[in-house]
């Protein structure tokens, strides 16, 4: 009975007590991205599916390799001590599809976990649709005790699947660092492993589906400078304005729902403005004609034929300077 | 065996019985906001991610510090007595990502919890898009027994992360108070800790995306006062009306879906009204011309050229007075 | 060992057997509404957050009050017998945030539960936006055995929080009754506690956001009766029609998504009809003019100037009579 | 100890072994529909809330009735053997709100369960909005062994609540059959209980909200055959086309989102076509007038005045023949 | 007591140790598709409901058939060893509705499971609405150890229900292969069973609901080449442009929300372009007429009457060549 108690204690110690208490445990961390599930610019979050690899040494688990155990022993969570890690920027908790723990004869523990979670990461879509984003996964140890667990980057297991895709984005390079930072919340030091991945928005479809049609509408609105019929001109310019607004309805779903101005908002605003100015020009022309000042109105037309396209181009250049450079 | 039973009782007492029953337990409460997840004006709720800190003294857990326990002992929920607190305004329950309990040698218990929940808080968006909101988290003890647990504000652990953001809002100051109030439901006194945080809506994008385009449409609709062609005037004013309505479709998604009038509703209504009045003006002008009273119609135009913009401006000033001041 | 078994039996009896089997247990029921979370006219359901109070007498739990137990003992669910109640019209099950059971020295059990659930309740929005709804919570005992549990209304604990709100509605009076009805499903009698609460829709915002703009559009479409230009009249009346339809797009989200006609549907249909009739009138005028019957067309205009507004008003009065009275 | 083991075995046999192994157990099945929660034409599924009644005889549970047990004994799931039934067309699993098992003195077991589930059922909305649907619940025994459980229809417990409603549908008759079919998946026979309920779409609101406004738009587009002004005619016919398209936006949400043509799609397509043909007619008229063939254009108008409405009517009759008969 | 321990060990061995450790276990895999639940082009995922069949031999479970066990014994998960398989491309985990394990007298284990899951599968909708997709289910063993479990295709149990449907798609042939591949993540070999099913989009409704109405709008916009009235021409061509845009709003919901160009995007873009070119043509015509070059403008009209339709046709042919062939 004493032995039983003893064995129980041993077992409890094996699962609850860190190996080699006299020095911190070195844990090699690897994150391997399998796929993105969702990308939400409004809430600045993304859903990710991946593998988490942890490797450390627990001398107590070392064993003599033989034919039966095939060079490694398999354990279940709860049977041995595991470093208690969690993502700092995950929404609530990561979900685990499955975990797998293998111990080599020398006591090296290989922990592999397939996880999924919604992660919060600051995103800036001001340059939309020409923006890039840097997504972050921050792994922490909730014990907040640098003396106990030290993260190292396991380069061989940090990466991403070649089949990972995020519709509308080109996936760039991933990068991982391990660092010790001061906690904002409490007066303690924290151990962090940060996995970063670059995303480049695929702007082609936005160019053809949003910018080109708007340019076509602007172009046809400029035909008023070649027409001398006031009735037709009002139809042309107001229909252009209506077309631009109606087209804005079409594309409303594709624009990011953020509460700050983006490049594309600026472009649409300039489009509205230039069409409204063309409307004011045709009324002035009409007014001049009514006042028998046809020569001035003709001159005005000739100037506007190049003034409007030029101004529109310059405004957009300024917009590009402000937002994109 | 007797001893075993005894130890069991002791353990049960440790977890179920409050320390020092003769006087209420003083619990220092701290809430630290990590991030906002969602903000719903229609249901007047918000999702929040944060830390809850509770600190109290349990003399029974005091111990002799030595090299092994590193100055503090760690417990799991269920192993010791915990004050039973909950949020009064949370939807159902808060979700706990993880909890961490550390006891100092003097018996001070430090409870830390990462939580997430959807909280209900009265919101008034009548001033939209120039509104500010005061969000509340109300922590209560369900035992409703002020003799048992007294909340204190733990200022050092009340705060918010510098990385917390809520897209479309500037986050202001947080504030926390502990108070004893009379329950509305039952004839008992309740112990409350209230954490408040101010939010200021970022109105810039609403100004440029909603108000400026509508002002442009109003402006071009006023060109009818300089034109004498009835055919063109009908096109101008009706296209302006259609543009305003179509533009309203574009922005419908950005307006708060509340069932009361907001500042922006008033602004849109005035826009519709002013365009409709311009339509009536052009028909009267046309009618006068048909009746050979061109001089009156000319005079009318001259008056309207300043009357309409002025009236529009004054109406909006009144609107601002009613809604914003 | 025998004693142990005995004590076990007692405990099991305490939790599974109703007190005083010879007569039905009188259970006082109180429901206290904390807040509404959602209101869905399409599925005729609402989400509600509240307290459920049950009070009954269990002589077996009576005890001698002393200083230690503070006048009441606290139990957990599963430790004593509880009446097995559920909501008949809840979707699946109510969720319980927490429960609290206190027993007074005389054996009176006070059960308090914070619950949340989605409830189905017949709603009729035919009078939208001038409708009122009566929401129901029906509590039943699944044992369906009136001999066992009798519900009484506990007036002191039936109520609603002054902070309860449902955006877009004024909350009226609540009412509770307990009754015994015959089950529709099986040939048995059922014991029901019904909590009802009145809701009055806040129709102000619908009036200003939907009805006033439509009236403006109708008004400007009537200007065709003062204009003799066929070209302008086609523009006026068709733009009015388009504006009404476009405006219908703006408000589509605010209208209840039910598959029967509501007052507002009727109002919109009459608006379309009156504009289409105005279109037919202008073509008849044009045809008469082409046939050199200008005097008849002039007369027609003079008649329509009062006929159209009057007919529109009368149609709406009939609509009000049908739907609202 | 032997006895204990024996009792254990008995208990385990009671719960795991079917009564009277020598012949199949006759199970009377009744399904009672309480309410519909959701109806999804796109995924061809519906959510349903109801009671499942199972009745069979287990001689082993027969007992001597006396005053204490009130004529029936109550059991919990897991305490006795239950036929293992499930719905073949449910999404994943049904959810159980509560279950209730009563055994009569003769051993008759009455199993009652309140369940909810999302069921897949083939739907054909080609005749929309004049369609009817037959919804199916298919109950199977996963043991797939007709020798073990035989389903019978329990007519007295098959039905639906008079308060069941599905917004937008009239609920017709329900019907239940029990049959033995060959499994598609494996080479075995299956025992099925099929509950069917008829639904008839309430087409009134679709008639008034969709078809009547479209007919009004078609009607006003036909006024071009009475007008000789090309300018006005272009406005009339194109505004009609735009109105029809804009109206299509209004109603887009109400149409079923299926990927095949429905009656209403055909009706909208014919509407577009007839307006486009009218546009072509006015341009031909204009061209003839320019070529000084006014008499032909006049004749054309006179023919079109009855040709267009007639063709439109005939097209719709053909559509009705194809889709509805 | 020793025997008890022994039996326990045996049981644990039965559930945790693979039968016949000396050679890999041959597992026959069959997947039988019951139904699709959802199909998401944006996230490139689909929800699927099906049966998973696994068959292998476990000599330890062989038994003597007699009348009682009906030729097979039934086990529950946890009672015997099961190959640990999972889907590599499922979101998190598959959900299991129920599982059924039958062992034949010779030790052949028949595992049957009804499962549901959301699967990620690369989709290419560039050819929309004339695209086809190949959906994949990839089953793996998480032990990643080809020495342990070898997958074989069980043709007799690989298939799909004749009642499986996916609204908007024709379901083609399914196919299954078992293969050994090198893992991307770790330096190990993996055992995969891949089930593929072809889907062909039902493009009829897209043809009639999207392409035909757009062709009608293009057709009526070409009437400007037969009209010499500038005022009418501006109305015709701009209304066509507005109609095309408004129609785009109607169909926006039906188009796949992907961030790359599809065939239908190209078709819509060409439609906009051709209408805008027609607008430019009418302004040039008007300008020529104002410059008294009516003969050139007449000639231009005659050329455009066949040039525009031809160019439109050729552009679409090129589009078809790029996207569809």
Give the CA-CA distance, first to last residue of chain A.
Answer: 76 Å
Largest interface: A-B, 50 and 55 residues
Work out the oligomeric state of the chains in this entry.
homopentamer
The biggest beta sheet of chain A reads: 7 strands, mixed
Low-confidence stretches of chain A: 1-8
Number of helices of chain A: 5
Number of domains of chain A: 2
The radius of gyration of chain A is: 31 Å
CATH first level of the largest domain in chain A: which class? Mainly Beta
Order of H and E elements of chain A: HEEEEEEEEEEEHHHH
Shape of chain A: rod-shaped
Approximately how much helix is present in the residues of chain A? 25-40%
Query: CATH topology of the largest domain in chain A, anyone?
Result: Acetylcholine Binding Protein, Chain: A
> Please, what is the CATH homologous superfamily of the largest domain in chain A?
Neurotransmitter-gated ion-channel ligand-binding domain
The helix/strand class of chain A is alpha+beta
Average pLDDT reading of chain A: 88
Portion in strands of chain A: 25-35%
In short:
The structure is a homopentamer of 325-residue chains. With 325 residues, chain A is of the alpha+beta class.
């Amino acid at each position: 009975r004493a032995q039983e108690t003893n064995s129980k204690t041993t077992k409890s110690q094996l699962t609850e007590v860190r190996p080699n208490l006299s020095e911190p445990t070195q844990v090699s961390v690897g994150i391997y991205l399998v796929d993105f599930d969702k990308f939400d610019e409004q809430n600045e979050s993304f859903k990710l599916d991946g593998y988490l690899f942890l490797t450390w040494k627990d001398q107590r688990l070392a064993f003599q390799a033989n034919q039966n155990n095939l060079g490694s022993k398999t354990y279940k969570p709860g049977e041995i001590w595991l470093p208690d890690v969690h993502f700092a920027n995950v929404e609530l908790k990561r979900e685990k599809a499955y975990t797998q723990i293998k111990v080599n004869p020398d006591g090296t523990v290989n922990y592999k976990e397939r996880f999924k979670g919604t992660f919060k990461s600051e995103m800036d879509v001001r340059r939309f649709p020409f923006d890039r984003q840097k997504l972050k996964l921050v792994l922490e140890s909730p014990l907040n005790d640098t003396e106990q667990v030290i993260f190292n980057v396991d380069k061989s297991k940090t990466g991403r699947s070649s089949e990972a895709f995020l519709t509308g984005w080109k996936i760039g390079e991933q990068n991982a660092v391990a660092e010790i930072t001061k906690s904002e919340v409490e007066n303690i030091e924290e151990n962090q492993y940060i996995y970063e991945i670059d995303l480049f928005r695929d702007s082609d479809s936005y160019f053809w589906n949003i910018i080109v049609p708007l340019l076509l509408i602007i172009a046809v609105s400029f035909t008023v400078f070649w027409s001398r019929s006031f009735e037709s001109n009002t139809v042309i310019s107001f229909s252009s304005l209506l077309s631009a607004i109606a087209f804005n309805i079409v594309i409303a779903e594709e624009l990011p729902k953020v509460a700050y101005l983006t490049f594309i908002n600026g472009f649409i605003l300039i489009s509205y403005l230039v069409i409204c100015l063309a409307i004011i020009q045709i009324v002035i022309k009409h007014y001049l004609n009514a006042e028998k000042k046809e020569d001035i109105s003709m001159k005005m037309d000739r100037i506007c034929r190049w003034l409007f396209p030029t101004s529109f181009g310059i405004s957009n250049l300024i917009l590009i300077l402000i937002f994109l450079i």
